[in-house]
Amino acid sequence: MSGHAELNAVTVSTVERSDRPERLFPAAYHGGVADAEDVRSLVLSLPHVEEIDSDGFDFRVGGKGFVWSYPERRPGKPRRIRTDIAVLYVGDEAEKQALLLGEPGTFFTTPEYDGWPLVMLLLAQVDTARLAELVTDAWRMRAPKSLTAGLEDGA
Fold first, then answer.
1. Fewer beta carbons under 10 A from the terminal one: N or C of the chain?
2. What is the pTM of this model?
3. Distance separating alpha carbons of residues 130 and 128, to the nearest angstrom
4. How many domains does the chain contain in total?
5. Which domain does 29 fall in, by range?
6. Tens-digit pLDDT profile for the chain (155 aa)?
7. Which residues pair with 69 in a beta bridge?
8. Which pairing describes strands 80-89 and 58-61: parallel, antiparallel, or unpaired?
């Protein structure tokens, strides 16, 4: 339970009052259970995002990926793109572990992602408000400073 409280403190502190997700993209912010279309809508509301052609969704900012569909790999089976699961950039191992330990029913990882600051997010386990916070944080961590400066200054 304490891991969950710490996670909430980390998440809240990274989104400044002047740029809460609902203010950045009010049309996409409905508070319901999230899905792939919500990912697309929320992410494309952020500045300078590039969508890469894929079987699911794949988004970059400044040439760096920050959220994409989970490419599920099972032995003896072809790779399957899961649009109900997002791979999300989280910045560092500490944040990854906080999410994994704090919300094990929402976030997971696989051995292929060991050592990478990435988690898998079960979209059906979050509402669009939480999804907005997560993708906004991922975008900020990957975007060039010149793009995030305006948001952090309250612009």
1. N
2. 0.76
3. 5
4. 1
5. 2-152
6. 333 333 333 332 233 333 444 444 444 445 578 999 999 999 999 999 999 999 999 999 999 999 999 999 999 999 999 999 999 999 999 999 999 999 999 999 999 999 999 999 999 999 999 999 999 999 999 999 888 776 654 44
7. 86
8. unpaired
